[in-house]
Fold:
Amino acid sequence: MRSGIDLASLDPSVRPQDDFFAFANGTWLAETQIPADRGRYGSFDILRETAEADCRRIVDDLGAQVDAGTLVDPTRRKVADLYRSFMAVDAVEAAGTDPLRPFLEEADNVSAASEIPALLGRWMRSGIGGFVTPFVNTDDRDSSRYVVFLEQAGLGLPDESFYREERYATIRTAYVAHVGRMLALVGVGDAEAAAERVMALQTHLAAHHWDVVSCRDAVRTYTKWTFDELAGNAPGVDWGAWAAGMGASPDALSEVIARQPSYLTAAAAALTERPVEEWRDWLRWNAVHELAPYLTSALVAENFDFYGRTLSGMPQLRDRWKRGVGLVELAMGEGLGQAYVERHFPPAAKARMEQLVANLVEAFRRDFDDLPWMSPRTRAQALEKLSMFTPKIGHPETWRDYTALEIDPTDVAGNVCRAAAYELDRNLNKLGRAVDRGEWFMTPQTINAYYNPGMNEIVFPAAILQPPFFDVQADDAANYGGIGAVIGHEVGHGFDDQGSRYDGRGELRDWWTAEDRTRFEARSNALIAQFDALESADAPGHHVNGALTVGENIGDLGGLTIGLKAYRIACESEPAPEIDGLSGDQRFFLGWAQVWKGKAREEEAVRLLAIDPHAPQNCRADICRNLHEFHDAFGVVEGDGMWLPEDARVRIF
Structure:
């Protein structure tokens, strides 16, 4: 049996005791160039490229069937036609900016702030955002029902910090110039002055945005308002007209969850406090920005110049076919995913994963039984929650119905708008209905996984179930260090700083004793401090935000700890063999570190440090220094780079 470790990526010139990430991946890092169309590149991206190419073959095959007149499945016909509409370059160029005209004319005709809410509702049906984004999800306090959440929005830069921190001053200047050029390309008069007004309004909104750390807080971001309370707390906005514009039923906003209530109050006030000229320019910009990727080459190039080159350091726009596959993923992901599963997800993979998940859950159960800092009362409820976990592996049991979605093979911009309306209606139609616990929030071809606290479920799409995460033919050690730790990571999210606030039914409820919460937070705070001291390997001098990344870091630490425990369970009947000169535990930790193999351009690394709740790859790999078992496996001693004194090692699970 093969080890599952990529031996060619190892760098023997680096001691694993000094820099484990570099030892596990150093040769690959030295020999690999980040592709010109990417801001970062690593294990996830390599698999994404594979899945992307697989999906391209699918849409090409479907297109050939359309030409041959043999494609009868209506959903797959729409997939083929959507892709073709994006690839029809001549038709896109011939249409020019015509798809934007109705939106620009509506913006031109706004004479008073009172007209804006209804307009924003209508535009939401075309995928053009406003100063608030609605989404439908299970009520955090009552997981048996759906409710509308209202999320802060309205900015063009990645985060509110980009509008206020001095380190982003150059980006702000570049952004205003970019907005001006984009508006000029679509014929907006005095575009430079208009861009300044857009920036002024966005800066005002950004000043009231909650920061990324506050937005992680499940309790702080739950404020339930009735419609009358919404109108009273955010006056100046005709919320009924906004909902009607979206096509929502009159009672859709009978209750809402205000994620950032103070922002809603401030944004509503801005509607009447800020000059209507600013709002008109802001509306024009929103329309141009949202539709630019589907319009002329000049708009596409300018859009990429700022969002790709300036923000992420990418020298080259992605090939058109890749962007076309991306559009299909965005608009009809499950329609494409059903065909992907038929070709690329063997039943054996699901069976092996089910066993891995069972072992990880059992490892968590044993861990909770022995956890010294958790009291019997909290332990009992933690075990109850664990018993109620729902694992989803590979793909949905019931596929999404795209009957209501109209696709025109000659009209890509129209398809984008119609797809937005379809998705909006699909979500609004959940209101008042039974919760669909079979729904997936990732497609099968997505290289990722997630935990959904509102449904207490862990979800593993088909495409992630391949090396380096998972190899049916490989020894257990690398699989438990890879997909096993990822499973543990997702289960661990149910007990991280925010997931632990939800019970087994997926409801926001404090089921911990005060003493246990205090002990848990002490460990979490130690992890925050540990990561605050770390830097991205790709942006030296730029530190990790420990408070922003703490949930994912708890997931990583718990996943690695429990993944190792599950590996030991799998080896209970037979000792782990030595393979490629490596012990079982050494292969386990290398399997973990090689999952995080990757590098980023400095611009992208800096951007991600500001907004990404995940720590940089090198920091995620090296979190293993918190485990006594890692020190034992590689003989790490005081004075080594990976050494952590025992009293500084954080162990939560």
